[in-house]
Amino acid sequence: MFYRETGQFKTNYADDMAIFPIRQDRIGIAIIIAIALILPFMVSDFVLKTILLPFLALSVAVIGLNILTGYTGLISLGSAGFMGVGAYACYKLTTLFPEVNIIIWIFASGFFAAAVGVFFGLPSLRIKGLYLAVATLAAQFFLQWAFVRIPWLFNYNPSGAIEVPLRTLFGMPITGPTAELEVKYLICLGFVIGMTWLASNLVHGRIGRSWMAVRDMDIAAELMGIKLLNAKLMAFAVSSFFCGVSGALFVFLYLGGAEAGTEFAIRLSFLILFAVIIGGTGSMIGSFFGTAFIVALPTILKFGAPAIGIAITGATAEKIVLMIIGALTIYLLIVEPHGLARLWQIMKQKLRVWPFPY
Amino acid sequence: MLHVSPNAATTGIAKGEVLLSVENVSLRFGGVKAISDVSFDIRKGEVRAIIGPNGAGKTSMLNCINGFYFPQEGHITYKGVRRQKVRPHEAASSGIARTFQNVALFKGMTTLDNIMTGRTLKMHTGLFWQLLRHGPAMREEIEHRRKVEDIIDFLEIQAIRKIPVGKLPYGLQKRVELGRALAVNQTFGTTIALIEHDMGVVMDLSDRVVVLEYGRKIADGTPDVVKADQKVIDAYLGVAH
Ligand SMILES: Nc1ncnc2c1ncn2[C@@H]1O[C@H](COP(=O)(O)OP(=O)(O)OP(=O)(O)O)[C@@H](O)[C@H]1O
Ligand SMILES: [Mg+2]
Question: Quick one: B108 exposed, middle or buried, by C-beta within 10 A (0-12, 13-18, 19+)?
Answer without folding.
Answer: buried
